[in-house]
Prior knowledge:
This protein is α+β, with helices and mostly antiparallel strands. Strand 2 (59-65) and strand 3 (68-74) form a beta hairpin. Helix 13 (430-445) packs across helix 14.
Amino acid sequence: MSILNLGIVAHVDAGKTSLTERLLFDAGVIDRLGSVDSGSTQTDSLDQERRRGITIKTAVATFRLGELTVNLIDTPGHPDFIAEVERALRVLDGAILVVSAVEGMQAQTRILLRTLRRLHVPTLVFINKTDRTGADPDRVLRQIGHQAIPMWREHEAALAESDDEALQSYLDDRPIDIGRLTAQAKVFPAYKGSAITGEGIDELTRAIARHLPAAAEDAEAELRATVFKIDRDRTAHVRVFAGVLRARTRVNDDKVTAIDDGRREHIGPGEIGRVHGLRTVRIGDTLGTGSAHGAVFAPPTMEATVEPVDPGQRRALHGALQRLAEQDPLIDLRLDEERGELKVKLYGEVQREVIRDTLAEEYGLAVTFGATVTLHLERPAGRGRAGAVIGKDGNQHMATLELEIAPGEGLEVRLDVPFEHLPLYVYKTVANFQDSMLRYVRAALARGGRHGWDVDDARVTVTRCGYISPVSTAGDFRRLSAELVPRALARAGTVLCEPVHRFTLDGPVGALTATLGALPRFGAVPEPPDVGPARFTVQGTIPAVRLPELERALPGLTHGEGTVEAAFEGFRPRS
Ligand SMILES: Nc1nc2c(ncn2[C@@H]2O[C@H](COP(=O)(O)OP(=O)(O)OP(=O)(O)O)[C@@H](O)[C@H]2O)c(=O)[nH]1
Ligand SMILES: [Mg+2]
């Protein structure tokens, strides 16, 4: 009995939930086909999802294909909920990328495709909505590129180009191993059809069983598992990669009280399950061995103040937002002590509405959001050092430290001091001291920049350390770090950075000169355009805050025939 954890990913409205429903129906799991439009599907089960007709939270549904158990993970397509997709990608063995045959590749499809390629996720492409007029599966194939293999027509020659082994098989007239090429993410076998009419679904189902690699199952290995979702009642959804997670065992600092409401005794390798009793885990945590992954998608770039309509509910609101943040680590909550304001980081308007409705419906709290501001960040401009020795220069703490801040990638603490100078009677291990220092530094750098923003991409090196046993405490190191970090940072200086998008603009050739001439007005930096006989395409970067202006000006510049798509690229120094 093997297992396949299969994610369904796509741009909003491509048909992920409809396809999930169709696969469950065809497999006999449900005996009535639900629909998104009447709010009756298995995986869009939240009230808000049914009302809005979009997926907000990932949902898992299981069906059997012969000897294979498939856990389908339906994900949201709206960019405001990309964090949900990120978590799903951590736990899946393969993916189906759904693309509408009418709309073709869209901004989110491109981002997903790039990510699937980068993470080498074995992927099938399903070109959906072929029942609609204007459907053009071949155009979608061209948009995806040579990796997409059209399985509905002659494709051996295309497959043969994938690598040497495939070419050899082709030349020897032997069948090419599509499963191997798919597992290595060298090809994306493509199918077409319709989630609504059911056309093409048999072929897709067969491909799921034949071409996607099932989960590895090493039950003897040490436990390695990832938490990818947490419910409101603190139930943790866990994917086990290796080893076995058993009921009533201790993991990290918690005890598993039950699995799947007591209906299971353990979660084996390759399996997904709902675990009760893990009170302190957070989404993205690993259980057992293995380390956390870095983020694969863009962080939120906006922030808004949340106010309770009834000022007496401020404490209740703080509590509710903390609960929401536990279910969703990307609901990043901040208490602005000076102004007594609660702030949340946001991906966009839809996410803001969903948070508002969730607070009203689940917590009985009516709230209003203040103006949304664009988040900036600051990076160290150069190097800066600050230090203090116990009993000298007005050092009020029983700790000696010297810190150097320099530009880095992400936030990082290094130790450049002899081992015996570290207060290990307090911190037990070097790693623990280093982790604690990282926490102190992060706290000091939050909103610690010259312009009042978080400081990131900093490498902090501890160049001197000392203590007096048994007097020095962790508190001394924490408080001294809080004083030294700002001093070192003031010497290093900072560069103010703003979120920048990569845009792809397309328009009629007649509008090329006017468009290129106008782009710098919006702070955009265009690259050399690609000019065809009738249309041109130009890519480049633009500050996130200026994108709406470009979008408004575009119809005028291109006689209403231009389109622009954009996606977060990174933080760049503000010009
Ligand atoms: N004609 C036609 N319509 C489809 C097909 N698949 C989905 N739709 C419609 O497209 C709309 C979006 O479908 P969903 O299944 O909610 O799409 P989704 O990808 O899950 O959307 P999000 O979860 O919000 O990202 C609905 O109105 C569906 O009825 C199809 O094969 N043919
Ligand atoms: Mg959906």
